[in-house]
Amino acid sequence: MIGVGSPSRIFLYRGTTDMRKGYDGLSGIIRGELSNDPMNGTLFVFLNRPRNMVKALYWDRDGFALWSKRLERGRFAPPQGERRRDRMGGAFAPSRRGECAHRAAKSAMGES
Prior knowledge:
Shape: globular
Strand order of the largest sheet: 4-3-2-1-5
Order of helices and strands: EHEEEEH
Structural class: alpha+beta
C-alpha cells in the first residue's frame, strides 16, 4: 500500500491547472505563483477546469510523489470555506479547525 504519510499542511490551488503538468510544472506553479516551497512537507492539490481530474504533489523524504485521479462521471467539489484573495485556500488551507480541513481533504481525494 502506498500512503501519503502525514503532510504538515494541505493546500488546494484555486486556479485551474493543465493536467499535462508533471512534477516540474506543478513545482513551478508552487514556487512561481504561490511563493511556496514544494519540498516543505505540504500536500498541494490541483484541479482542472471541468473538475473531473485532481493531482496531488508532495515531497516524500527523498523525492516528489504525484497522485492523480480522473472521474469517469461527475466532478470534484472543492470544500466550501472562507474565501481568500490568494490562490490557495478553502478548507484545505491551514486553519484552527485542523480536523475539519483533514476530513475535507480526504473527501475531495475520494477517501472515506
